Amino acid sequence: MTGQQTHTANAQQSYTLASRTSQRTDQSLQKSFHLSPRKNFKIWEFRTLFNKTHYRIFAFWDKENKQETLVLTTHGIIKKTGKTPEKEIEKAEQIRLKYFELKNAQKNGNKK
Questions:
Q1: CA atoms of 98 and 92, how far apart (whole Å)
Q2: pLDDT tens per residue across span 15-61
Q3: 6-37 burial, b for 16+ CB within 10 Å, e for fewer?
Q4: Measured between alpha carbons, how far is 59 from 73 in angstroms, rounded to an integer?
Q5: Count of Cβ atoms closer than 10 Å to residue 70 Cβ
Q6: C-alpha torsion sign, points 94, 36, 29, 64
Q7: Distance, CA of 75 to CA of 52 (rounded, Å)
Q8: Do residues 31 and 16 make contact, with C-beta atoms less than 8 angstroms apart?
Q9: C-alpha distances in angstroms, 75 versus 7, 11, 86, 111?
């Protein structure tokens, strides 16, 4: 599977999950996770440290529906150091872009 096919598959899975699930953010998350913006506040990184291992989950918000906000995770990584690889942030951004592309295509009646 090529990188583009992987991003498309991940975005499709994210869109399918989001279509079925409505989630709300919880303030208690901020106590156990460090939340920091990446890519001009479009990608967010949830970080936590457990047993000297850094766990990272990348996510984005879908706020197009004014009544609900969906939080969609793209992928996660395990790190032994504190620095986040730029390629992981780029991967999350590509999945986010593909998600909205698929969502808009479906909204307009086009299936990809």
A1: 10
A2: 554 444 333 344 444 445 566 777 677 898 888 887 878 888 999 99
A3: ebbebbeebbeebeeeeeeeeeeeeeeeeeee
A4: 4
A5: 20
A6: negative
A7: 20
A8: no
A9: 11, 10, 14, 24
CA distances from 81 to 15, 35, 53, 93 (A): 31, 17, 8, 22
Q: Residue 97 is encoded by which pair of tokens?
A: 């872009």
What is the DSSP code string of the chain? --HHHHHHHHHHHHHHHHHH------TTHHHHSEEEEETTTTEEEEEEEETTEEEEEEEEEE--STT--EEEEEEEEEESSSPPPHHHHHHHHHHHHHHHHHHHHHHTT---
pLDDT tens column, 4-26: 566 566 556 555 544 443 333 44
Amino acid at site 33: F
Question: For tokens 């990809």, what's the residue?
Answer: 112
Residue 58's DSSP bridge partners are: 45, 75
Please give the model's pTM, rounded to 2 decimal places: 0.63
